[in-house]
Design goal:
InterPro entries: DUF5117, DUF5118, EcxA_zinc-bd, MetalloPept_cat_dom_sf, Zn_MMP-like_bac. By secondary structure, the chain is α+β, with helices and mostly antiparallel strands. It folds into three domains: 189 residues, no CATH class; 351 residues, no CATH class; 119 residues. It contains 27 helices and 22 strands. The protein has a seven-stranded antiparallel sheet, with no helix packed on it. Strands 15, 16, 17, 18, 19 and 20 form a six-stranded mixed sheet that branches. It has a four-stranded antiparallel sheet with strand order 1-2-3-9, with no helix packed on it. β2 and β3 form a beta hairpin. α9 crosses α17 and α19 packs parallel to α23. The relative contact order is 0.07.
Length: 871
């Protein structure tokens, strides 16, 4: 009869068949009935599948992949990393990037296996009861779950799970896609697949190709929105569909955790930090362990010994042959620092064969690899650490292809801000902010400027051996910087201040000592003024700080003596050659910091002198390219590109110069160790000198005069559909000037200038720079035509409007400006109002100048009359 199941066969040995449907089951046969919901036998699931034995054995059959979970691996922590091997190639979404890592454990709940990320940020050492409290107080996170796919193996007691649970949006990549394009991309599991899988005793690796899609691309708005709307992907054949490659590594944590080393704030090391509730007497519960590789001598008694296990970097097979020797040299340069602390060949370099079965993005191979993108120009040196100790377990340096002459040209096409690539990079993958590195991108701009200027001087012919040598030296410098990150070192943005201008011109000195005290600084190309001696253009070797930082992190000590010995090393921080400051010092909560000696891309022990020199170099480049003129056979974009190159060198100069005003020199000493103050006000005359430089250069239209025929000849690329428009010099200049205005008129600057006398002995206070002097100097420089008479140039009118806009905002809107500063703003605004009225009454002025003066006077009058809405 249809729908009736056949009667079950008799049990072996002649046992009777089970009772008919409806009868109560009785006897042994009923107890032996298989559970239809129970997992299938292990052997049935993997029949005809191929096994790759290892940390988590992998079984693969056709498109199916299973992981074998040994019974003793449940509840035992291991490391999970997820790195991006393929991506979109724009807006911060690039291939070859380390992306995410977690300390995880597998948890079995009935027939479900959960992948749980352990919360390592909060512990309670030494107190089991309090540790239990901490576990209750802070949650773990569920990364994924899947049903058990098999019964236990008869002998090994392991079970299988379908690895497809990793074919998920574990990284949250759909969010990064939405950030870049503002489109709802979702993971399409049906068209995602496993590329490869392998396993060995330490790590199991799964390469997954994930398909992301969006149903439709919205039509562009009929009316242009007030804010820019991101466009859909421009690098894929169909913007609705894209693939992202992920390399998952499931890696065994060290059975014996490395002995952690305490960090010291006088040096700059990446740290693994956590909150330890176990020491209730300690006022600060945060613990910081230095991030470092495990490095132990093969012969502990030898003064100089090879390591038991060297730090090995693999050069990925995708690195262009042209650069491999320089990349290797950049890596091995760090062996000099390790030799000083007793390690011979602490670092080794290996080349990945073209036919290698492994991917250097797996967690078993620290690597250096190239990547490309449509808008990319950076390098990064992140690492993965054991959160228990700070031990570095993997690092993958990503180098964008910015070194070739053609590639660097792409980066300098647009006159304006940095590529959007860096905007996306800033938040992608949740990396710690201290591990974001834009050195290669910024140095690419530096290289472009250097080549343009040296070509204009006929000092470096394109394609010459000399030009190639500079490129290779630049590659080595960037690699040294990024390798330093993967050894555990943070940026050092005070390193350039330890070298004098005379030493920078001494080729013997720069070849032996570099152009600063650390390759972890962002240093510009060391270009001499015309007629000066020329030292090395870039850092050729490690600096004194680099040796010091490696000594602190890696020098072996007896455990009992380690705190004392580390204290002795760190106490050398007062030596001038070991000056150090990090990203937070340079950024100051994104306000640019307060120490004018802590900056990116300055050079020499007098940053203000360097800014004057760099301004002169930009002007020299512009003058030379205008004198040369366009010639048959030139790249159509050549002159536009050189103009942009000169402006890029001035990109941060105004706000860095303005940092002197209200500036404080910062020393990172521990309390009671040196007698030096943490904060020391910048000398008043240096602050005044910075103000004069801004008035005479950045605020002066004479600094930015170009020949009309030069500007008229700045052609776009007529092969492209979307073409650049005529260059607006006033807009570019105003972008520089507003940097200085914003810094000088900021509430933080005002507060520090008002506070500075309190940091000075009584006998020095009379000569201190006052806020009244700052505002008076600024206003006089910007509105000097009101006293001098005559016409006001269009670029000057732009500057004056921007100044007036800020004065108006301070007078009419609530702000953090101190009360004394607001009173001074109002006083100077009243004086300016009277000057504007007087100037507006003059005869013989052009309509543009007359209208500007009338509008400015009216705006200021309304602002002075307005009632501020006070919070």
């Amino acid at each position: 009869m249809a729908g009736t199941a056949p009667a079950p066969a008799a049990a072996a040995g002649g046992a009777p068949a089970p009772a008919a449907s409806g009868a109560a089951p009785t006897g042994p046969a009923a107890a032996a009935r298989p559970d239809p919901t129970a997992p299938r036998p292990f052997a049935d699931v993997v029949r005809d599948a191929k096994q790759d034995d290892g940390f988590f054995p992998v079984w693969r059959k056709d498109e199916k992949v299973w992981l074998e979970i040994p019974a003793d691996r449940f509840g035992k922590p291991f490391l999970l990393t997820a790195n991006v091997s393929q991506s979109v190639g724009e807006r911060g979404l690039y291939a070859g990037q380390m992306a995410g890592n977690w300390m995880v454990e597998l948890r079995r709940i009935g027939n479900t296996v959960q992948l749980v990320a352990k919360n390592t940020d909060y512990v309670a050492s030494g107190d089991p009861a309090l540790a239990r409290t901490v576990r209750q107080g802070f949650s773990d996170s569920l990364l994924g779950a899947t049903p058990v796919a098999s019964a236990e193996h008869p002998q090994r007691k392991s079970v299988l799970v379908d690895a497809a649970f990793l074919m998920s949006d574990l990284l949250g990549y759909s969010t990064y896609l939405e950030m870049a394009y503002r489109l709802p991309y979702g993971l399409d599991r049906g068209n995602s697949f496993f590329d490869a899988a392998r396993a060995d005793s330490r790590v199991t690796v799964l390469n997954v190709n994930l398909h992301y899609a969006t149903p439709r691309i919205p039509a562009p708005p009929l009316v242009r929105p007030p804010t820019a709307v991101p466009t859909p992907p421009s690098t894929t054949p169909d913007p609705r569909s894209l693939f992202v490659g992920i390399v998952y590594s499931l890696q065994q944590l060290p059975d014996q955790p490395m002995a952690p080393r305490a960090a010291d704030p006088r040096l700059g090391h990446f740290t693994d930090a956590y909150t330890d509730f176990g020491n209730e007497m300690k006022p600060n519960l945060r613990v910081h362990h230095v991030a470092r590789w495990r490095l132990e001598k093969k012969d502990p008694q030898a003064v100089l010994s090879e390591p038991a296990v060297p730090i090995t970097y693999w050069l990925d097979r995708n690195i262009p042959q042209r650069y491999r020797a320089s990349v290797e040299a950049g890596v091995l340069e760090w062996n000099k620092a390790f030799e000083r602390i007793g390690f011979k060949d602490a670092i080794v370099v290996k080349q990945q064969p073209d036919d290698a079965a492994f991917d250097t993005l797996d967690s078993a191979h620290a690597s250096i690899r190239w990547f490309v993108g449509a808008d990319v120009g950076f390098a990064r040196g992140p690492s993965v650490r054991d959160p228990r100790t700070g031990e570095i377990l993997d690092a993958d340096i990503a180098m964008s292809d910015v070194f070739a002459r053609g590639a660097r040209r792409v980066l300098t096409e647009d006159l304006g801000a940095r590529p959007a690539a860096l905007q996306g990079l800033a938040s992608a993958f949740g990396h710690r902010h201290t591990e974001r590195c834009t050195f290669a991108h910024e140095a690419a701009d530096e290289a472009a400027f250097a080549f343009d200027l040296l070509e204009a001087r006929d000092d470096l012919p394109p394609g010459s051996p000399e030009a190639e040598a500079v490129v290779q030296a630049y590659v080595k410098e960037v690699v040294m910087h990024e390798v330093g990150h993967t050894l555990g070192l943070k940026h050092n943005f005070k390193g350039s201040t330890t070298v004098s201008a005379a030493q920078l011109q001494d080729k013997g000195y720069t070849a032996a000592n570099g152009i600063g005290n650390s390759v972890m600084d962002y240093t510009p190309f060391n270009i001499a003024l015309a007629g000066e001696r020329q030292g090395n253009f870039v850092a050729a070797t490690l600096g004194a700080y680099d040796y010091w930082a490696i000594e602190y992190a890696y020098k072996p000590f007896e455990r009992a003596q380690e705190p004392v010995e580390l204290g002795r090393i760190a106490a050398r921080s007062t030596e001038p050659a070991l000056a150090y400051a990090d990203d937070a010092d340079a950024d100051g909560n994104r306000g640019g910091g307060i120490d004018p000696y802590t900056n990116r891309f300055d050079l020499g022990d007098d940053p203000l002198a360097w800014y004057r020199k760099r301004f002169a170099l930009s002007r020299e480049l512009w003058e030379r390219v205008q004198a040369r003129g366009a010639r048959p056979g030139d790249d159509p974009l050549r002159e536009r590109r050189v103009l942009a190159s000169g402006f890029r060198q001035l990109r941060d100069l105004p706000q860095l110069t303005a940092k002197y005003v209200g500036g404080m020199v910062v020393h990172r000493d521990l309390p009671g160790t040196t007698g030096r103050p943490t904060y020391r006000p910048v000398e008043p005359e240096r602050q005044r000198e910075a103000l004069r430089f801004l008035a005479d250069s950045v605020f002066s239209i004479d600094s930015f005069r170009f020949r009309p025929e030069f500007l008229a000849g700045l052609s776009p690329d007529f092969n492209e559909w979307e073409r650049a428009q005529p260059v607006s010099i006033p807009s570019l200049v105003l972008g520089l000037q507003t940097q200085a205005l914003d810094r000088l008129m900021a509430a933080g600057t005002a507060q520090r200038v008002l506070d500075l006398p309190a940091y000075l002995p009584t006998y020095q206070r009379a000569g201190a720079l006052t806020l009244n002097e700052v505002y008076m100097t600024l206003q006089s420089a910007i509105w000097r035509e009101l006293k001098q008479g005559g016409e006001i140039d269009g670029m000057r009118r732009n500057l004056q409007r921007e100044h007036l806009k800020r004065v108006q905002a301070l007078l009419t809107r609530p702000s953090d400006l101190p009360a004394d500063a607001l009173s001074l703003v109002r006083m100077h605004a009243t004086e300016l109002q009277a000057q504007l009225r007087g100037a507006g009454a003059r005869t013989g002025l052009t309509p543009e100048t007359r209208a500007h003066l009338q509008e400015s006077a009216s705006t200021l009058t309304e602002a002075l009359r307005a009632t501020m809405v006070r919070s």
